[in-house]
Amino acid sequence: MDILGLLIPVSLFLGAVGLVAFWWMLRKGQFEDPDGDAHRILRDDYDDKPKS
Amino acid sequence: MTATFEHVRPSACPACNAAPAAEHLADLPLDATLMLSLPGIHCAGCISGVERALLKVPGVREARVNLTLRRAAVQAGPEVTAEALAEVLERAGYEAHELDPGVLATTAADRAGRDLLMRLAVAFFAMMNVMLLSVAVWSGADGVTRDMMHWISAAIAIPAVIFSGRPFYVSAWSALRARRLNMDVPITLAIALAMVTSSYETIHSGHHAYFDAAVMLCFFLLAGRYLDHRTRASARSAAQELAALEVPRAIRLGDAGEETVSVAELVVGDVVRVKPGGRVPVDGVVLSGQSEIDRSLMTGESLPAFAGEGSMVSAGEVNLTGPLTVEVTAAGRDTALHRIADLVAVAESGRANYHSLADQAAKLYAPFVHILSVVAAVGWWLYTQDLRIALNIAAAVLIITCPCALGLAVPAVTTAASGRLFRKGLLIKDATALERLAEADTVVFDKTGTLTNGAPTPLDLDGLPGDAGRVALALAQGSSHPLAVSLAKALAGQGLRPAHVESLREVPGHGVEGTWQGQVVRLGRAAWVGAEAAAETATFLKIGDSAPLTLRFADTLREGAADVVAALMAQGKRVIVISGDTTAAVTRFARDIGIEEVIAEALPHEKAALVADLTAQGAKVLMVGDGLNDTAALAAAHVSISPASALDAARAASDMVLMGRSLAPIADAIRTAVSARKRIRENFTIATVYNVLAVPLAVAGLCSPLIAALAMSLSSITVSLNALRLK
Question: Which residue stretches belong to region Disordered (chain A) (predicted)?
Answer without folding.
Answer: 31-52
